[in-house]
């Protein structure tokens, strides 16, 4: 099995990268939708529209992309267990775990918005919007540069 995965490693890695791109696009767009949601009239048509968009984005893109990222990463680790011994890998893993935690927090916020609540402020969501991107930069630089 490991030999098969090693022969397919470039394809698995490319698909992993594509899933990361989809996940990060959604993770950066969802808080932007929260900003617009804050600006919508409570109970109005725009609010219903944002509830629908937020749900579809999370369930149709962000969740499946994150699942693909973790599943493909698992295949790559199974094929190449030496990665566990690399210091850079532990930093990358910590960044991805943090992004995953933020993902869960965004999902929780989305449910609050759906209930008609307005968690946090517009300004808060504008700032938080950047956090997954910064963590992704850490993960990418670790994976590409392998500094230690």
How would you summarize what this structure contains?
Helix content is 82%, strand content 0%. The protein has helices at 2-7, 9-39, 45-79, 87-114, 122-128, 131-145.
Task: Give the radius of gyration.
Answer: 18 Å
Structural class: mainly alpha
User: What is the number of domains?
Assistant: 1
Percent of residues in helices: over 70%
Number of helices in the DSSP assignment = 6
* Beta content: under 5%
Low-confidence stretches: none
Tell how many strands the DSSP assignment holds.
0
Overall mean confidence score, pLDDT? 97
The CA-CA distance between the termini, in Å, is 29 Å
Major pleated sheet: none
Question: What is the 3D form?
Answer: elongated
Structure notes:
- By secondary structure, the protein is an all-alpha fold.
- It has one domain.
- The protein is 82% helix and 0% strand.
- It contains 6 helices and no strands.
- The longest helix is centred in the middle third of the chain and has 35 residues.
- The protein is elongated, with a radius of gyration of 18 Å.
- The mean pLDDT is 97.
Protein topology:
Elements: H1 2-7, H2 9-39, H3 45-79, H4 87-114, H5 122-128, H6 131-145
Keywords:
single chain; 148 residues; mainly alpha; 0% strand
């Amino acid at each position: 099995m490991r030999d098969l995965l090693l022969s397919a490693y470039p394809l698995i890695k490319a698909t992993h990268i594509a899933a990361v791109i989809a996940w990060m696009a959604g993770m950066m767009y969802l808080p932007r939708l929260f900003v617009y949601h804050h600006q919508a009239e409570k109970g109005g048509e725009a609010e219903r529209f944002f509830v629908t968009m937020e749900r579809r984005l999370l369930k149709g893109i962000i969740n499946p992309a994150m699942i693909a990222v973790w599943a493909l990463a698992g295949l790559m680790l199974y094929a190449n267990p030496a990665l566990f011994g690399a210091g850079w890998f532990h930093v990358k893993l910590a960044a991805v775990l943090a992004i995953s935690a933020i993902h869960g927090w965004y999902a929780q916020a989305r449910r609050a918005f759906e209930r008609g609540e307005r968690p946090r402020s517009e300004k808060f969501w504008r700032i938080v919007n950047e956090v997954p991107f910064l963590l992704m930069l850490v993960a990418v630089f670790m994976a590409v540069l392998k500094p230690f």
